[in-house]
Design goal:
The complex is a heterotrimer of chains A (374), B (275) and C (299). Chain A is an alpha+beta fold. Chain A contains 9 helices and 20 strands. In chain C, helix 3 crosses helix 7, helix 9 runs antiparallel to helix 12 (270-298) and helix 11 runs antiparallel to helix 12. The chains are: A alpha+beta (374), B mainly alpha (275), C mainly alpha (299).
Chain lengths: 374, 275, 299
């Protein structure tokens, strides 16, 4: 068990700044996901933890030891690559044994460790095969086995499931959660898939443009996103975001008024331009005050996603139970659940006005089933 | 109708292919004809009597075997030297970061295109100076001037084809850079190394100009210049003997073609002609 | 050139040092057998050196003035250009044509490919011996073949008179080097996605239209590279021409490479030869730089 600390990390590639002022402290035994769109710097961060890239400035420590100058093999970490990076010319058994061999573990102990790992991952029948004779899922398990076999302090996983098909992916997700519970080691998991991050991680570090946006538990990331980027990135379909202004206890957009619960927000909120964020599940298609026209209805079986257009030409998404007779062209008065309205500073990535009270906590289970279609 | 068109196409293409191959077929046919049959007018297209006397004479009465041995030593030494240097050089050029690396890569490409005649005069003077003139060593050094840039360029392409993740995985698994090179990269690079070695060997085996300038005694002459001296020294040009020598000289190539041709085509793909 | 490790991270510096260490043997060999001789060639070109004794005396720009004012260099340059353009065009036309044929569904295709490839890999010495025998004026197969077919009624002196000698050299050059074009084009042809042809067919394109609208545009970039490379290599060709005609008759097929050799080792004027070789390299440099820039852009 080991904690991992990234302190004031900066990374430049030539003139391009890939990471800036990155500070992350991961607790011992924690499962942390680095989440963000491609190019956000999450893989670079992981590769720096592994010692495969070098920070331009800042300090990396693992288990209390600064490892900036320590070679990857001496950091007591293991890594699973997106491409699996299995050695093509070695058998499965040789692949799994390789890290032990490099550490000078004697042959009999090596064989025992390989056998144990193979049993854990149900790889026994495959031990004498070459990687190219394995399916994607099997290769994935071998890569995992190679990481597990020498019991490192920290596991680094770089999009390990992204090359699997959807069904196998959800199976492996469950396997990984189970594995983490069993061995209790620190795991750092890079992904661009918010569903993976939400379901697996103890905490999520959301990254964008080389900067850490928010680092917190999944519930908090979902319910209290730090800024417009996090709000838009987490959740499917994305949170609706509308530019308008606050006037008294209403949000005004294109002359239409939407009531808000001003008491929720701390004193920082003043009249003036803001961005209103509302998740599709908190938009109701009737009984509100905002006139809208239905433009599209997408039925996903257990629910349907309705696209409506409000004055000013903005489009919003609403989620409703399927079986409703909503049809294209129909007009309605939509409303927002005031307890779930997020307000952000204007600007491209405005930060969120903090809220008080219980209002924004909904059960995690509901969210999980809600975001399962991704 | 369709079959007729197919037949026509096959016939046409094969006639062209055979025309291209004709000189080589002619070489073999001539080498099997008795000397007297050569000077018939009009010539016999197929030998009336097949004889191996020229091959026998070549091996017993001429220095051919010495030339052959020299060529084997020369081409093998050059190949080993250049491939070893090229493999670690390519590893450095592809997988390490240091100042001047890009310039160096460009320089390699530049030397790869450089005409031999520019280097031959100073190289000749240098070998005289070093006391290496008329030795196989001087030819190995001279062959390095074209073989090393070539091998480096080829191996660099092959090295770029080895996934970087493999090396990263080995490093994380506890290997040093050189350990990763040995355990993971070299096995992946092997087909590329074979390809490069074959190309280098053939280049060195076929080289003529340096051999012409740097070496002038039968004891160290390789096949290219050796066989040409047989042409010049003979009072009456013995074409059958020369054709037999040509066939023998092409033996290594025929072996490569029969068994390892895929490596040659692979070398093309990786080499200069990416487009 | 500055080869130095980056300042900064210690592990990174250690890796950079290892990288430099690994390339060092190559740099040493390069300096010894390429860079030094290249500089020496430039140095020599301002001396007058008598080959047998290697006695030299500084003559300044004399060699270059002679290069510019005497006809030898310019005549050779023109000969080189004729040879290069002639043999290169044949190589490209035959090479692309043959590649297109070999790309089709041919009986014993791999055997046909091997046979076509062979001339490229065979030693120039072998190629030249065979062709000199084929070209032989009294007993050569070419003269008799052409006479039997009724194309000629007199044997021709192929390598001893002009313009036959130039035609002969160009033909042998084309035969020897067109397989390079075949392999390169064939490799490219195999990567053209089938659906492009299917789409063209659906759009109503016949075989000829498909060639001009699908195949040729796809081949363009590889053809540029092939032409550049072959132009460079043909321009500096020595073995083939030297062995076929020795530059003759008189100097009618004496390309620049042969001129340099002749000046250095037959006329024993090493300084002048070095100047010629530098001049030749400067002409080639244009193509070399275009090729290098193109390759660098792709990388």
């Amino acid at each position: 068990m080991a904690e991992v600390v990234l302190k004031d990390i900066r990374k430049e590639f030539g003139t391009f700044v890939a990471l800036e002022r990155l500070n992350v402290a991961i607790n011992a035994g924690e499962f942390v996901a680095l989440l963000g769109p491609s190019g956000c710097g999450k893989s670079t961060t992981l590769r720096m933890l592994a010692g495969l890239e070098f920070p331009t400035a800042g300090e990396i420590s693992i288990d209390g030891r600064v490892v900036n100058d320590v070679a990857p093999g001496k950091r007591d970490i293991a890594m699973v690559f997106q491409s699996y990076a299995l050695y093509p010319h070695m058998t499965v058994a040789q692949n799994i044994a390789y890290p032990l061999k490099k550490r000078g573990v004697a042959r009999p102990e090596r064989d025992a460790a390989v056998a144990k790992t193979a049993a854990l991952l149900q790889l026994e029948p495959l031990l004498n095969r070459k990687p190219r004779q394995l399916s994607g899922g099997q290769q994935q398990r071998v890569a995992l086995g190679r990481a597990l076999v020498r019991e490192p302090k920290v596991f680094l996983l770089d999009e390990p499931l992204s090359n699997l098909d959807a069904k196998l992916r959800s199976y492996m997700r469950a396997e990984l959660i189970e594995l983490h519970r069993r061995i209790g080691k620190t795991m750092v998991y890079v992904t661009h898939d918010q569903l993976e991050a939400m379901t697996m991680a103890d905490r999520i570090a959301v990254m964008h443009d080389g900067r850490l946006q928010q680092f917190d538990e999944p519930e908090i990331i979902y319910n209290r996103p730090a800024n417009r980027f996090v709000a838009g990135f987490i959740g499917t379909p994305s949170m609706n975001q509308l530019e308008g202004e606050i006037s008294g206890s209403s949000f005004v957009i294109h002359g239409e008024q939407v009531p808000i619960n001003r008491a929720l927000y701390e004193d920082a909120l003043q009249d003036g331009p803001v961005v209103l964020g509302i998740r599709p599940e908190n938009v109701s298609l009737s009984g509100g005050s905002l006139p809208a026209t239905v433009r599209l209805v997408e039925n996903a079986g257990h629910e349907q996603i309705v696209t409506v257009e409000i004055p000013g030409g903005h489009r919003l998404l609403a989620r409703e139970a399927s079986g409703q007779r909503t049809s294209v062209g129909q007009t309605c008065q939509i409303g927002f659940d005031a307890d779930f309205i997020h307000l952000f500073q204007p600007g491209e990535n405005g930060s969120r006005f903090e809220t008080t009270g219980q209002a924004h906590v909904i059960p995690m289970e509901a969210q999980r089933s809600a975001s399962d279609e991704s | 109708m369709r079959i007729l068109r197919k037949l026509g196409f096959n016939l046409f293409t094969w006639i062209l292919v055979l025309l291209v191959a004709f000189p080589l077929v002619w070489m073999i046919l001539t080498s099997l004809k008795p000397q007297t049959e050569l000077f018939r007018i009009p010539p016999t297209w197929l030998p009336e009597t097949v004889t191996f006397e020229h091959y026998w004479r070549l091996l017993t009465e001429t220095p051919f075997l010495i030339y052959f041995r020299n060529s084997v030593v020369l081409a093998t030494t050059t190949t080993v030297f250049v491939v070893v240097l090229g493999a670690i050089g390519a590893y450095s050029l592809v997988r390490f970061a240091y100042r001047g690396r890009e310039t160096l890569a460009t320089l390699v490409l530049f030397t790869y295109l450089l005409p031999s005649v520019v280097l031959i005069i100073p190289l000749y003077l240098m070998m005289v100076e070093l006391g290496l003139s008329n030795t196989l060593a001087s030819l190995v050094l001279a062959h390095t001037t074209f073989a090393l840039p070539y091998a480096l360029w080829l191996l660099r392409s092959f090295m770029e084809g080895v996934p970087e993740d493999l090396e990263s995985a080995a490093l994380v698994d506890g290997a040093s850079r050189m350990g990763a090179f040995r355990d993971v990269i070299l096995p992946q690079l092997l087909p590329g190394i074979i390809s490069t070695a074959l190309f280098t060997f053939i280049l060195s085996w076929n080289e003529y100009l340096y051999a012409l300038v740097l070496v002038n005694s039968d004891a160290v002459r390789p096949l290219t210049t050796g066989v040409m001296t047989m042409l010049i020294s003979a009072f009456n040009i013995e074409w059958s003997l020369l054709m037999a020598a040509s066939v023998m000289m092409s033996l290594p190539l025929i072996v490569v073609f029969a068994f390892l041709q895929s490596y040659l085509t692979r070398g093309f793909g990786a080499g200069a002609v990416k487009g | 050139m500055a080869i130095a490790a980056h300042a900064g991270h210690r592990l990174e510096r250690r890796y950079a040092r290892l990288g430099v260490f690994l390339i060092a043997p190559t740099i040493v060999v390069f300096s010894l057998v390429i860079v030094y001789p290249l500089l020496a060639a430039i140095y020599l070109s301002v001396f007058s050196v008598y080959t047998p004794t290697l006695e030299g005396e500084f003559t300044g720009a004399d060699n270059y003035i002679r290069l510019l004012t005497n006809a030898a260099f310019w005549n050779s340059l023109i000969t080189t250009l004729i040879w290069t353009v002639g043999t290169l065009s044949l190589q490209i036309v035959f090479g692309v044509g043959m590649a297109l044929l070999l790309h089709q569904n041919l009986w014993f295709r791999s055997l046909a490919r091997s046979l076509v490839l062979f001339p490229y890999f065979v030693s120039t010495v072998v190629a030249v011996l065979v062709w000199r025998w084929l070209f032989n004026d009294l007993y050569g197969a070419i003269n008799h073949g052409l006479m039997q077919l009724g194309i000629m009624d007199m044997p021709l002196d192929w390598l001893g008179t002009m313009p036959n000698a130039m035609i002969g050299v160009i033909l042998v050059g084309a035969w020897k080097y067109f397989p390079f074009v075949v392999i390169a084009v064939l490799a490219r042809l195999q990567t053209i996605p089938e659906h492009l042809y299917e789409a063209a067919k659906i759009d109503g394109a016949g075989p000829i239209a498909r060639f001009f609208d699908v195949t040729l545009p796809q081949l363009r970039s590889v053809l540029v590279v092939i032409i550049l490379l072959r132009a460079i290599w043909d321009f500096k060709e020595f073995d083939l021409i030297y062995l076929l005609t020795g530059g003759g008759p008189v100097t009618s097929t004496q390309t620049l490479s042969l001129l340099v050799y002749q000046e250095a080792f037959a006329l024993n004027e090493m300084g002048q030869a070095a100047a010629y070789s530098i001049g030749m390299m400067l002409v080639m440099l244009v193509f070399m730089l275009v090729y290098i820039r193109r390759t660098a852009r792709e990388a």
